[in-house]
Design brief:
Elements lengths: L5 E5 L3 H12 L4 E5 L2 H10 L4 E5 L7 H10 L8 E5 L4 H9 L4 E4 L4 H13 L4
Parallel strand pairs: 1-2, 1-3, 3-4, 4-5
Helix pairs in contact: 2-3
């Protein structure tokens, strides 16, 4: 049996972390939780993840800066990042895609939509 897909959820809201862990973990994914972009950068350098679910609004280092740093590093350029934010305006979504995000999920999220988008990104990675 193959190893479960590993998802790193980066969000400073513990309620969102727990809900996301329950939803993704309950669907067979292995889920790790972190609260900052700096922690996320350290984690992807030391562990293997198949996808990063990344909040935009975080203290210290926001999701935009974290995304830029991930995509600028050749070792992580192909790691799919899905932006995850209450900022659901079209300009935010377009900005995320222009910066290299694989998708954008608006919070509060609908469970079925979260799972469908995560599955799509994991099953159909961009070249």
């Amino acid at each position: 049996m193959p190893d479960p897909r590993r998802i790193l959820v980066v969000d400073d809201d513990t309620d969102i972390q727990e809900l996301t862990r329950a939803v993704l973990g309950g669907s067979g994914y292995e889920v790790a939780m972190l609260s900052s972009g700096r922690e996320a950068l350290q984690a992807v350098r030391s562990e293997r993840f198949d996808l990063v679910l990344l909040d935009i609004n975080m203290p210290e280092m926001d999701g935009w800066e974290t995304l830029r740093l991930l995509k600028a590093d050749a070792a992580f350029r192909d790691l799919p990042v899905v932006m995850f934010s209450v900022k659901g305006e079209v300009r935010d979504k377009v900005h995320g895609m222009q910066e290299g995000a694989a998708d954008f999920i608006t919070k509060p999220f609908v469970v079925d939509e979260l799972l469908a988008r995560v599955r799509r990104v994991l099953e159909h990675p961009e070249p």
